């Protein structure tokens, strides 16, 4: 008869290179299980979140979409890799027509330009891991014009959205569960651009992602 032991770990785990022996891990009660990869990353503190707009204070976007002035940028430094889990856009109002929402990746950093610096917070509230990414939003001056951009998600409305009763706030969502996964190996970036013809929309947007050292993927 033999006893079987595992490493009971829910915080950040050791990761090796290819073809290395790695200890079996599980929860602290000794249960061996395979959980969803994103849930496992969240338990480690490696899922991060950022937001633009707070509670009852929406943000105004561009009258015409300007890709050099994104509404949100996640800059991923060398040595870090991220995979977006969700990008959610809540448009509260727009009086213009043809509202467009576009998310894209690039193989270079966008930089702060003239923007507001945002925060990347772990969804594990004791913050056992910190993000190495830089967050910028609400650009009023141009970011870096980068090559190698790939548009991976687009949404739009061809009509005017009001806030009258019976016309609810619209939510548009990229989800890794429903759309093609994007893996950004730093240096690189994710940019979110929003605009409409005539009058810029107002609203709120959030993004979440899994973040790992590039040596761990």
What does this structure look like?
By secondary structure, the protein is mainly beta. The chain has a single domain, classed as Sandwich (Jelly Rolls). Helix content is 4%, strand content 43%. The chain contains one helix and 15 strands. The protein has one helix at 37-44; strands spanning 7-8, 25-26, 47-52, 59-60, 72-76, 80-93, 97-106, 114-117, 121-122, 134-141, 150-157, 170-175, 184-185, 188-197, 202-213. The strands form three sheets. Strands 3, 4, 6, 9, 12, 13 and 15 form a seven-stranded antiparallel sheet that branches. A six-stranded antiparallel sheet has the order 8-10-5-14-7-11, with no helix packed on it. A two-stranded parallel sheet has the order 1-2.
Strand content: 35-45%
Shape: elongated
Cα distance spanning the termini = 37 Å
CATH class: Mainly Beta
**Helix-strand pattern:** EEHEEEEEEEEEEEEE
Computed structural class: mainly beta
Low-confidence stretches: none
**CATH-level-2 architecture:** Sandwich
- CATH overall fold name: Jelly Rolls
- How confident overall, as mean pLDDT? 85
